[in-house]
Each structure stands twice: as C-alpha cells, then as structure tokens.
Amino acid sequence: MKGMILYFDICAVPVYLIIIVTTLFRGMTKGRSNRLYLAVASLSFAADLCELVEQFAFYGYTLNMGFVVWVKMSEYLYFITRNAVNVAYLFFVISMTKTWYKIKPFWKKLLLLLPYLVVISMLAMNEATGCVFTVNDEDGYVRGSLILLVYAMAACYLLVGTTYLVLHRYTLDRGAWYSLMAMYFINVGSVMFQLVYPHYLIESFATSLTVLFVVLFVQRPELQVDMSSGLPAYRAFCNEMGKIKVTGHDTQIVIVNIRNAAEMRSYLKEAYYAYLHVIDGEIRVFARREKVPYELYFEEPGTFYIILDDEKYNPVQAVPELRDRVRKNSNEIFELGATPNTRVVTVTFPKEIDSLDELLRFGHNFSRFADYSRVFSRATDIT
Prior knowledge:
The protein is of the alpha+beta class.
C-alpha cells in the first residue's frame, strides 16, 4: 500500500470539519433528520481519518509489529464506520421523505440492518479467517477472499436507497432529490475510479462533497433555523407538512400559541427568547422520558408546531406538567410581571384537515376561536 496518493483524503478533512462545526453551531441537531445527517457526516469523517492513519503507517517506516497493530485497528474502524455510513444515509433518506412510519416496526429496521450486520460478523471472524483482510510485517496489507462480499453489502444499500428515492421522489423538490441521489452515484463513480487507478484514494473526498451537497441543497440551514430564536423554523414545518400531504399518512400535530407573544417579546427583549428555549428544553425532557418521538418548529412571534410520530398519543396528559415545569424554570419572566396567555390544540393531518393551506390558516387562527376557559382543545372542537 505504499505510493498511495493521500491528497484527496487530506482535503476531505477540512470539508468534514466545516460541515460538522457549522451544523453544531447553527443548532441543527434537533429532529430525526438532523441527527441522522450529523451521524452521516461524523461517520464519514471518522472513516476518512481511519484511512489516513492507516496510510501514514506505510510512509517511511518499516512495518514492525507496532505498526501492524496500528494498521489493523485503523482498518477495522474504517470498515465499521464506512459501512455504517450506508445505514445512516439510508435512514436519513427515509426520514427526509417523511416515510419513517413505514419502518416503524423493529423487524423492518432489523431487515435494513442485515447487510451491515453481515459485514460486522465478517470483521468479528476476520482475525481467525482473514476473510476481509490481513496485515503482517512481511506482506503488509492484503485483501481477503471475501472482500467482494463487503462491497456487495454496500451495493444492497445502493440498490435500496436509489429505489426508495425513485418511489418517493414526489416528497422532495428537484434539487433535494438530485442531491440525495448524488451520494450514491458519485460514490459508485469514485469506487470505479479507484479500481482503475488504485493509487488515487478519492472515495472519502467524493463522499465529503456529496455530504456538502446535502447540507446546501437538502438541509439548507437558512430555511431550517429561525434566525431570531435559534429554534427550528416555520418554513421547515411547512415543508414537512407538504411531504406528509404527499404520503397521506395521518400525523398528529400539536400547536401551542402564546396569544400575547408580541407584547411579551417587546417587553422582555432577550429574556423572551430565553423563555422560548425553556419551553423547548422542557418539551425535549418530557418527550425523552415518555419515549415520544417528535419534531418541534417555531413561528414568530410565539407559536410552536410539534409533529408527533404516534398519532394515538394523547398530549392532554402533558399540558399540566409541562406548564408547571416551564413556570418553575422561568421565574424571572413571571417576576417581571409577564403572564403568557397560552392555547394548545391538536389536529390530525390530513384526516381532520385535509388541505395544507387550511392547516396553516388553522394554526394561525385557532386561538381566536378556542374556548377561553380551556388551555387545551382538539381541532374537532373548533372547526
């Protein structure tokens, strides 16, 4: 493995660092899709570093037993992380098309994990069989007899991922669809290039570019994050609702409106945004404890939109506890004399309101028609 050209692997490092740091800095870590994207970027970065560490062991050194252990550990970690990217990216595609409900049963997730588990099993047996690779101080790195099976397992994810994107292409705009599909085809091209020119290690750099395309054309931070509050933005919520409308899968939406939000924002200034983050944090703690998957979005001046994975979950049980916890952790707000006037409503979309425009209008106007004597209502009580 001497003579390998590492410039592309080295160039991939700053690309990954920029992607990961900006993702964390912008707070794009909330919601399943954002977490899966961060997993794809982090695992790809780890695979690139493992490949660099392994290759540096061959530069200018005699391959003694110490370096053999170094290279072996790097190779094992490379195969684990590089193949994990395939799994995380497929899950990311499913999440982005708003069809996670299709793999909700555990056995379906396990089915999608099977190719990766085959690779992990091969790696577990590799030390005894050498079926994936061997490393020694005489021959250096040598590919095993079953290395092609590892590529075949990766090809399974390629086939499933591209087929899934074709079948659910209407849930994505054209730019997002092409960017997601590019991950597969650019990586196939880079692998084929390396087969013809094995001294050029370009796969990690090609992956870094496709991960960059995703953040530019799919994640689009300027649309994902509300610049004033730092919370997930209303425009992202509208986009997600459009996908749900295409899939037709009934989804429960909880809308929380602070009716006097504009006055509170004007009076409290920055303390108001701190109050919003207390609400966000308490919802996150409660949902984690109750094991309720959700996605939260915010619209200025004071409306939260919460998408629940479980259509049958009854959020009325959460309202009193969350109200008390938020009040307990926002004493400063109440000491200043501010009293939030909050209304909460749940609606099942598209079952109860089948038009996206009607849903968005309902979200803006429901608090004007809700029963003033009740904090919590259902859409069927208002419409």
